[in-house]
Specification:
152 residues; Pnp Oxidase, Chain A; eight-stranded antiparallel beta sheet; 5 helices; 8 strands; 40% strand; globular
Length: 152
């Protein structure tokens, strides 16, 4: 069953391009829609301005949540993920690998090989990762309105 859940998660991540990231400061929540890339461990990567509200909030509180949905078309049933985990700004030595995952998903013809190439593509924005601790899988066709839990 765990392997089947991994395949479902990978399929949803592959078929999606946007996530909604939830952060909080004090008792005040915030949600931001972001374009993401991912790796085989379901880590989610994105770029943002350091001054963006979600960037500022996750620096103070790394506990975040995210939602990713596959937009249904026609007869296709709803599919998506609800994710909780920790997020942080990547260290320079982590950026090139994250950027390659991010740009591969977008079909970028020339994959960056150096931090300089990445910086040229991202124009000074910072790189972040969400490392999931728990993922809920929603698949209306397979589970109806129930969801399945996957703990990383």
């Amino acid at each position: 069953m765990a392997q089947d859940l991994r395949q479902l998660i990978e399929g949803i991540l592959r078929d999606s391009r946007d996530m909604v990231l939830a952060t909080a400061s004090g008792n005040i929540p915030w949600a931001a829609e972001l374009v993401f890339g991912h790796d085989a461990n379901f880590n989610l990567y994105w770029i943002s301005d350091l001054n963006a509200r979600h960037s500022q909030e996750l620096e103070k509180n790394p506990n975040v949540a995210a939602v990713i949905t596959v937009q249904p078309a026609g007869e296709i049933k709803d599919r998506g993920l609800q994710i909780q985990g920790k997020a942080y700004r990547l260290k320079e030595e982590e950026i090139v690998a994250a950027a390659r995952e991010y740009f591969a998903k977008r079909g970028t013809p020339h994959m960056p090989k150096t931090i300089e190439e990445v910086n040229k593509l991202t124009q000074g924005r910072s790189w972040y990762v969400l490392k999931p601790t728990k993922i809920y899988i929603l698949d209306e066709e397979l589970f109806g309105y129930d969801r399945k839990e996957f703990i990383t």
